[in-house]
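Batch manifest, entry 17 of 40.
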Amino acid sequence: MGALVATARRQTGVTLVEMVTVVAILAVAASLAIPTTDPNADLAAEAMAAEVARAMRFAQREAIRTGTYQQVSMDPATQMLRVYQPNQPKLPASITATHPVDKRLYEISFAGNAMRATIVSSVFKYDKKPSAIYASFASDGSPAEVDPKSSSFPLKEEGRITIRYGNAERVIRVAPVTGRVTF
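Output type: structure tokens
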């Protein structure tokens, strides 16, 4: 009779195998739910945003120094940044600026770069033009677009360039009146 009572009083609970299984399932679910972050992503995104901001400031200073319009094109389709003097009535084509340090053409290719950064978007809205992928600076340094008839159209709202590296994004902004470049 004692053996019969012992089997009837079996305690309820979980076995070690069941507990380990549940913990393993929770660990897998947590690893999928929590995104992995690259500790260098923020630094790399910051570095690329700083490089784009330097290009914008250089174009603005070149416009003031030379007394001519300067543009910075950031094309998400080609992943290319280029600083240049746009076509003017007396010039047959645009002239790419030279980098102030290495004296090569001021172009940065984001396609296949070692930092894996990308240009997500580039939006500049000028009067008389709904949207452009370039920043244009007038000879006084203000953000304005010029057309072949020597008319000037100011930037209507803040210009924005979005750069992404991994899961980190940075937005470079150009103020519509002053042309101040921030990120």
